[in-house]
Amino acid sequence: MVRLVISRCIAMSIIWFENPQQEPAMSDLLFLSISLLSGLLAILVALYTYRVVMRADEGDKRMHEVSRLIQDGADSFIKIQYRILTFFTLFLAVVIAIVFVDYGIPIAISYIIGSFASMGAGYIGLAVATQANRRTAAAAAEGGLGPAFKIAFRSGSVMGLMIAGIALVGLSALYLMWFVIFPGIAAPFLWEMITGFSFGASTVALFAKAGGGIFTKTADMSADIVGKIEQHIPEDDPRNPAAIADAVGDNVGDVAGTGADIFDSNVAAILAAALLGAGLDATFALPYAFGLLPLVIAALGTIASVIGVYLVRPNEQDDPGPALNRGTYITTILFGVLVVAVILILGIDIVIAASAIFGLLAGVFIGFTSDVFTNDKGLFGFQPVRNMVENAEKSTANLILSGYSYGLLSAVPSVIGVIVALVASFILGSTTTSLGLGGWMGGIYAVAIAAVGLLATNGLTMSSDSYGPIVDNARGIIEQSNASEEAIIACDKLDAAGNTAKAITKGFAIGSAAISVLALFAAFVEAAEMLIGEEIIVNIADPFILAGAFIGALVPITFTAMLILGVDRNAGRMIEEIRRQFRVDPGILEGTSKPDYDKCIEIATSGAIRELMPSTIIVIGVTILTGSILGLEALGGYLGGAVLVGFIMALLMSNAGGAWDNTKKMIESPEYDHDHPRYDQIHRNSVRGDMVGDPFKDTAGPSINTLLVVISLTATLFLPVIAHIHQWLSGMF
Amino acid sequence: MVRLVISRCIAMSIIWFENPQQEPAMSDLLFLSISLLSGLLAILVALYTYRVVMRADEGDKRMHEVSRLIQDGADSFIKIQYRILTFFTLFLAVVIAIVFVDYGIPIAISYIIGSFASMGAGYIGLAVATQANRRTAAAAAEGGLGPAFKIAFRSGSVMGLMIAGIALVGLSALYLMWFVIFPGIAAPFLWEMITGFSFGASTVALFAKAGGGIFTKTADMSADIVGKIEQHIPEDDPRNPAAIADAVGDNVGDVAGTGADIFDSNVAAILAAALLGAGLDATFALPYAFGLLPLVIAALGTIASVIGVYLVRPNEQDDPGPALNRGTYITTILFGVLVVAVILILGIDIVIAASAIFGLLAGVFIGFTSDVFTNDKGLFGFQPVRNMVENAEKSTANLILSGYSYGLLSAVPSVIGVIVALVASFILGSTTTSLGLGGWMGGIYAVAIAAVGLLATNGLTMSSDSYGPIVDNARGIIEQSNASEEAIIACDKLDAAGNTAKAITKGFAIGSAAISVLALFAAFVEAAEMLIGEEIIVNIADPFILAGAFIGALVPITFTAMLILGVDRNAGRMIEEIRRQFRVDPGILEGTSKPDYDKCIEIATSGAIRELMPSTIIVIGVTILTGSILGLEALGGYLGGAVLVGFIMALLMSNAGGAWDNTKKMIESPEYDHDHPRYDQIHRNSVRGDMVGDPFKDTAGPSINTLLVVISLTATLFLPVIAHIHQWLSGMF
After folding, report:
1. ipTM, two decimals
2. What pLDDT score was predicted for residue A733?
3. How far does the CA of residue B170 sit from the closest CA of chain A (Å)?
4. Does residue A543 contact residue B443 with C-beta atoms inside 8 Å?
5. Which of B66, B364, B489, B663 is surrounded by the fewest CB atoms within 10 Å?
6. What is the pTM of this model?
7. Taking the CB of residue A386, how many other CB atoms lie within 10 A of it?
């Protein structure tokens, strides 16, 4: 097999060079090489960084012990989850191979590769994060802020660059592979096979993000209820059998989950643009393949990210926040310059570069908005969190109602940001008169390019994001060790910068998924039109299509409810286990014998998947059924309804959750008047707000993005199957 | 003017009778007469009932005193609100008269009449309710359950029959009037003038429902915070300056608000069907006017309601719940029989009767669903409220999260019910081959008829609903008087039946508004096509239209947030006033001097309107702006996005709020284990859940219906203006 591919590759290269009339193929090869090499560069830099970080000092014995437990816990989680996911992947691959009349096998293979690529990226990120925390703590204890920041950020960049690199290498290698194995096949069909890769990445991301979210909140809630409330032992006490599960949870949700989420959005954005571009290529004779251009744009963003990562270094003892921001600015500007230069050199309409930059600006704007709604400063006197602190002083209900209202309001600017990017890039792409661009298809392609642009610098964004949980853990470790006061202050500063980065990334992830889904929506419509040879009009004034839109709107709603109720049920199981351990071995509470941490991790992990599996299968099933029964246009309405409601729900839940969290932090901070006559009451109110917000922001909110990508890809991937069933059903009535 | 109308009327009648070729006009006259007479019948029965009820015994002095304070408070509220609303109405009427090139004056006049009709209905309902409560209490004290039920239900029926009657009389009288004044004008234009009537009803309903919602929660919250928390005086203590405002609030929100809400939905549903029917009439030559048929269907429902109201009487000392249900069943069946008979006699396709019945069944189903999600029994082992009680035993956060999740889930069956009614009536209407029906327009018309059918029996539904607050108040009055234990038990039974009726009506109101809005959506599209002479395709795959849908989706979100935050701000003002009264006159707390109740009512009333006015103007403005800038098709997307998100939000908030309320009631009920070691804690958790739920279910949730109707009518009414501005803007760029 490998030999066949290599020999065909060589044969193809010879054909390309010997046939000058096939000049476009030359640019294809160029584009693919750029993508492949940039991807490899990112992966190599990530691996090199990993080696450098691993050589750093691991700290004293106590640091090592605490960190080791978390690392082992994360390993258990990964082992259990990946075992189940492997079965799921192989099962679904067999289904795909069977139900697809054409190209079932290549789609199934792409799907398997996509799943394992996502799992691999998540594994590496988690492995680095759980080993970097003690090294960051050690660096803080010995060298202070500067060296600690360097370790933490470099470690975070392993995950960031890895997912950017794997996306590029995966997509371009698969394209080359299917091109070589199926010579002469049209580009749109090649990309349809590769849709399997994106589908694999997204289903794994859904498990990583939503499953991780259920895991982390299960552990958190159970540890608190049995530990703090029933047994009156402190939070994070090592006697609590759920303590390690709780610590693992942060890494599982924030590192592996967010990484998988950004990875799948990035792949989906590139794929949507490629599908639309391949449609343009098929319609017009062009000097360059629009189908491969998205890979080049993503590659430029990855190069900018690699450079950006190495330029992030704070001044000694400074607040590291500005350094992180500097990294973002530099990478953004660098990407802008690169993309304009390359588009000009290639002689492609500058509109493409402008759309990519619009997308990136929209992403930055959404991240900024999330920050305004969740930080303690606000903007221009509009201070949601400060107002929520005042409401916490009144009552729990006032705090919850105001947080919920600000969460709703936070959707407004973000949605408007996405609308502006959408409409502006569409206008640019549709009014230009360049070869191949212009008109409806040109406009839609520009929208897809905006999505690619938004995600192009994901290598850097994800580096900043992964940095957060690493310093958060490092802070926990250093508190439990015998480090100096200075080291703790350094870690606090690192942590504060990490929290802001996390808030921004959360908004960024939601915005990027939303615009990727819009691009996928357009790609779905194009693909459906190509398939049935008729225009697809998603006219929601048609009752069938409106019914589809309503069903779509119910999907994120139901998914959210099932996740939150799932946490509740799963916590019930884990509470039983913790109580059982305390009952069976009284030595645990006395501190004389070790609790069985692994058992709790296993319950949280398998329970999370058990809660999630039905929802996932239902979501995929409802998507296929809606299209099969109501038709492809109603399926378009379904996707539209889902993204309308889902985007708003995701923003509401993430931002309300973040705002409640920071309200509690403000009330706990030294600036707040701790001598207030009702301080205990007020603090308890804020804790309740945070408890409501936890599953909002860590379980449901950010999972909705991934859900939207999964259903969009389900519609696009299973399109031929759905059209077939619908035709058969229509014939029956 | 009056003489002119009368003389023209006579002239028209002569023309009708003298011109046999104008036979269709004969049926027009018949249809209008049926509608007008049924409406007058309902109003006369309501007035007669009012006289009968007012003759009943008013109870002892103590009952009279308490009730009188509430009655006076309600009067103050009405006076202040209606003064502001009159200014608002007249101002908007002038705007309408100016901006409309054609028929500005008749539209403005229709608008003024619609506004005052809604205010009048609300006034009568409130007047009856606040006088009936003491009479119900007196009947319970003297005659027991049976007589008390009779008084309460008959009083409720005054409001119910009044709104049904005013809708019929208003619409048919306006039609006749404009027909006579503008002889020879086409029916669609007549209905467009009458759109003003519906717009007036809806804007007043928005103030009544949302303003009433802000009022009642402002009073509730402020009374609790200053009274219970700061001064430690009991709830409802007459020393509290906000006590009467609090009691008035229930009547204001539940009687006047819900009445205005159902009234406006009913008028909007009939109007939408009439607009679509008039379009059918204009296209085909038909023996009967489809434009007037909706009035006949609504008239049949009103006749069924009048009969149903007089058949509701419980067996002596029985639970009155079955009697209420019996009334609903009888009215529903009677309506079904009448509508089938009349449609058959007229020789119109039976499909029309089937659609009307589908609509009614959908309404009953949605009401039933709301009940399952909020009562303490559940269905088939699915027991949301019981599960929430278990969560209340864990923590406040668990209770809030589970209530929120069940609220989300409660949207699923209701939305599916609406979809089924929508698609089924469309299929029926589009596949029939009767004259005029069939095809796209026939299908859409059948959908609008389903909306009319759903609301046809609103006379009875609203009677059961108004009954609720009357017995609720009666229970409060009887507790404060020296009545026997038996009388209190009788009132408790009446109250329990009232709560179930209220839960069902709340769901019913949301469902009816949703399907009315869908009918209005179709009417908007038809009207827009007629206006610009081109097909309107609301294709959400088009970025401009998708942008419109996103903006529309933001409208209910923003409105909800502004309402909830508005309650918070308004309560702040009222808390200041209560504190001021206590400070200035210490005699109030000692019980030696009377607090200034009216001042609190004034603050709550004018504050509510002050919070609501900007939102209302913004909502109307954004609707007009979206259409003017992005075009009519994007305005279609806007309406679609608003109804998708708004319908789900309304169900979520109403049902979650109801479930939290009943969770608290279950924990307070004698069946719950009051000796639980943490009972106080658990009860406090449930109180917090109820506090979060109050603005959900009484302020934001039910206002969203009305909001959706208002924006749909804004789009339809201002269509020519919007089209004009858009054309002008398009010409500029």
Report:
1. 0.89
2. 66
3. 29
4. yes
5. B489
6. 0.89
7. 15
